[in-house]
Every structure is written in structure tokens, then in C-alpha cells.
Design brief:
By secondary structure, this protein is mainly beta. It has one domain: Metallo-dependent phosphatases (Purple Acid Phosphatase, chain A, domain 2). It contains two helices and ten strands. The chain has a five-stranded mixed beta sheet with strand order 3-2-1-9-10, with no helix packed on it. Helix 1 links the parallel strand 1 and strand 2. The longest helix is centred in the first third of the chain and has 10 residues. The model has no long low-confidence stretch (mean pLDDT 93).
């Protein structure tokens, strides 16, 4: 399974639309919040979309967290603001352990991050539009036969 991970698109649909043809054979698109309505214009015939609300998604329909099962892995999708992600991973880690998640995909910081701690992959794809680390980015996760591979890609 190939999973495209994005966050913090902030109304810039063109950047999101630019990525999809680049990444062949996407099975899932995960949007970790802040302008989740951006995915509504995306052609979704070939993949599933799961999205969660961020701190800038007031008035939008959706959940703040989603627990997704792909193959034999559990993925916690959240924006991160409720877990104070700007100040570290500890609150996200507590939630991940509580849910027995294998992967946590989050946003909010506008900085990409990919780290493995205590058998949990934490992936923040950064921001497609307003990166705070100098480079617009997104994430790819591949799950094949129980093995997880991930990478952050610059736009």
C-alpha cells in the first residue's frame, strides 16, 4: 500500500494537484489538517482519502483524530495541535501507545519530521504551502507485507 501524506495545505490546491501525478499508484491520501476542504476538488477515483480537522478547520465537518487500519498496521492521523506537537512528541507518543498505533501522521508545525521511537513511526509531512523549515514537502509511507518504509519528499 502506498500512502501520500500531506498537511497544512492552507487553500493551495494546485500544489496538492501537482503531487498526485508525480506519485504513481497511491492507495490512500492522508490529510493531517488545516484546510481539509482542499481535498474535495481532488480526483479520488483511484485512492481513498482520509482527513482530520486542524486548528484552522473551524466549521468544517470531520474528526480531530482518525485511527486507520492498513494491512496489519494502525495509523493515528491527527493534526497535532491537541497534542502540543510544536513542543515535542511526548503527548503524541502517549496517545500512540494508548491506541497501540504503529504510525502517527501529524502536521501543525509546518516542519517535516520522520523519526522512529519505540517501534512507532512519527511522520510529519511538513507543509505544501508555508513551510517553516525552508522547503515545501510531503510524505510517502509504503506498507508491504508488514514492513513500513517512509520518506519525506521536497516539492
Amino acid at each position: 500500500m502506498k500512502i501520500l501524506c500531506v498537511s497544512d495545505t492552507h487553500g493551495q490546491v494546485s500544489e496538492l494537484e501537482r503531487i498526485i501525478p508525480i506519485e504513481d499508484n497511491i492507495d490512500f491520501l492522508l490529510h493531517a489538517g488545516d484546510h481539509i476542504t482542499d481535498v474535495e476538488s481532488i480526483e479520488k477515483d483511484n485512492f481513498n482519502i482520509v482527513k482530520v480537522k486542524g486548528n484552522r478547520d473551524r466549521g468544517c465537518e470531520g474528526n480531530l483524530d482518525e485511527l486507520i487500519y492498513i494491512e496489519d498496521k494502525k495509523i493515528l492521523l491527527t493534526h497535532g495541535h491537541r497534542y502540543r506537537a510544536k513542543y515535542g512528541l511526548s503527548n503524541l507518543a502517549y496517545k500512540a501507545v494508548e491506541l497501540e498505533a504503529d504510525i502517527v501522521v501529524f502536521g501543525h508545525t509546518h516542519k517535516s519530521l520522520q523519526v522512529q521511537e519505540d517501534d512507532i513511526l512519527y511522520l510529519n509531512p511538513g507543509s505544501l504551502t508555508y513551510p517553516r523549515d525552508g522547503q515545501a514537502s510531503y510524505g510517502i509511507i509504503e506498507i508491504n507485507e508488514g514492513e513500513i518504509k517512509s520518506e519525506i519528499k521536497a516539492l
